[in-house]
Design a protein that fits this description.
Strand content: 25-35%
Number of strands: 17
Number of domains: 2
Structural class: alpha/beta
CATH architecture of the largest domain: Roll
Strand order of the largest sheet: 14-15-16-13-1-4-3-2-17
Shape: globular
Bound molecules: zinc ion
Radius of gyration: 23 Å
Length: 382
Amino acid sequence: MKIKGIHHISNIVNHPQENIEFYTSLLGLRLIKKAVNFDDAKTYHFYYGNHNGDLGTVITSFPLGQDAKDGKKGGGQAVSTYYIIPDGSFDFWHDRIKSFGLKTNEITRFGKKHLVFSDYLGITNELVEDSSGITNLYEYNGVTSKNSIKGFYGALIHSMKPKDTVKFFTDVLGAKISNEDQDFIRLELNSEIGNYLDINKDAYLRGKLSKGTIHHIAFGVETLEALINFKKTIEDLGIVVTDIKDRNFFNAIYFREPGGSIVELSTMKPGFNMEEFDDRAEKLFLPPHFEANREEIESNLIPVYVNEVSKLKRHHYLDSIGYLDANRFDFVLRRLNELAKLKNTRDLSELEIKEQKELRDEYINVFKNNFKNTLESIEVED
Ligand code: ZN
């Protein structure tokens, strides 16, 4: 029995809007589904991918909120996700990531140049030029098909027992060792994309899965029968495996491989039916068992939008009311800055002077005390 390649990868993050801006506005991926955690409707679950939501391109996020505990990178975790970018697009991405305000770094893995960058939370991503994978036809915010991310290339795992991890992936899941250098063993899987796993040869102490870490990697299996067979085989090794979970778009089991990291095995079908989705997933997707409570569930979630931004910024509001306040705050600052600029070119009218005074009072009295956090992230020109 052999698993296919990477099916999807899931991250634990903080603010839902920051996460959407990172994956859509910066990386140009399509928000293919805005859902909730099927086990906890108070938390969103976002799915991003190519134009078609093809498995092997899907990165998902659980935004736990600003006050969630920080995770710690360490053993028993995937610690970096590699994405395929089209040949010739390395410089485009280098410049783009910098222009959004993030640092980049270049490294070489098994003869290929990787562009390395982290999001706000320290989750590491790497872009690799490669000819595999189909062209991503989703174009957004300056990312065109010529440059857009095609899906996963692979991932890096820090194991608590690297030799056992390698043995498990080769003997039980059907991976093969395709390369090795001083520091890493490279495993090759059985798909067109998402086909490499690098295992660091050093053993790491256990990290902590929370905000800012990769929660799990899911690997594809062809059929439900294969999933059932894998469950039995893995249980026979004395590993605890969950029941088969219905994730609506696929069926899945979860377990920890011997090196400590959470592995999900997922069926390739039914997959994401993209016909039922609006272009930017404006409608909240709920599994049938939550549908009766849609109104309550929606009212408890922070409103989020796919919107074109050219720089990443922090969002500190925690609920819908905070969202409205934050928007009003943005407006007040923008207008104050406009009036200040105007004042440099001509005298302000009486009406404008009155408006300016009122906005300043609002700014000082209401926002300054209540939104200290928001202030940190916004530059005032006046
Ligand atoms: Zn998953």
